[in-house]
Amino acid sequence: MTVEEYNERSGRSKKMLLWFAMISFVMVFAGLTSAYIVSKSRADWKNFEMPSAFLISTIVILISSITFHLAKKAIKDNNRSLTSIYLLTTLGLGIAFVYFQFDGFGQLIKLGLYPTGPTSSVTTSFLFVVVLAHLLHLFGGLISILVIIYNHFKQKYNPGQTLGIELGAMFWHFLDFLWLCLFLFLYFFK
C-alpha cells in the first residue's frame, strides 16, 4: 500500500466516523424535539415568542457556513492569506453566534421565562435544554476551528492536503443546518 492509498483510506475512515457522530447527534435532537411535541399537550404548556436574538444568531451562523466554505475553496486554490481571513472570520462569527444565543436567553429571562424554579414552565425548560445542547455541540465546532486555524498557520494544509479543513467544514455545516432546523421547529411549533 502506498502512502497516497493509506492517506485516502484514512481520510475515508475519518469522514465515516464523523458521519456516524453527526447521525448520533441527530438522534439526540430527534428525541428532544419528540419530547417537546409530546409535552405540548400538557395543561401547563405556555406559548412564547422566539427572542429576536435567536433570529440574529441564525443569520450569523448561516453566514459562517459561507465563510467556512470559502476558506476550503481558498486553500484548494492555494491562497493561504485568503484562507486565513475566512477561517478567522468563521471563528468570529461562531463566537458571535454564541453571544446572541446567550442574549436570547437573557431576553427570555427578561420576559419572566425561566428554565427552572417556581416561575419556570415546561415550555421554557425544553427551549433552554434544546438550545444548550446545541451550544455544547457548537463548542466542539469552535474547538475544531481553533485546531484548524492552528494547523493552517503551521502550514499543514495545501491544495493536496485539505482533510482537516474538509472535516471541520462538514461538522460546521452540519451544526448550522441542525440549528436552522431547530430554530424553524421552535419558531413554528409553539
The assigned CATH architecture is: Up-down Bundle
Largest sheet: none
Distance between the termini: 56 Å
Q: Which shape, going by the Cα principal axes?
A: elongated
Q: What is the share of helical residues? A: over 70%
Structural class: mainly alpha
Any chance you could write out the topology, listing elements then pairs?
Blueprint: H1 3-39, H2 52-76, H3 80-110, H4 122-153, H5 163-188
Question: Can you describe this structure in just a few lines?
Answer:
The chain has helices spanning 3-39, 52-76, 80-110, 122-153, 163-188.
Describe the structure.
The chain is mostly helical and about 190 residues long. It has a single domain, classed as Up-down Bundle (Four Helix Bundle (Hemerythrin (Met), subunit A)), CATH 1.20.120.80. Helix content is about 80%, strand content about 0%. The longest helix is centred in the first third of the chain and has 37 residues, at about 5-40. The protein is elongated, with a radius of gyration of 19 Å.
Keywords:
190 residues; elongated; mainly alpha; Four Helix Bundle (Hemerythrin (Met), subunit A)
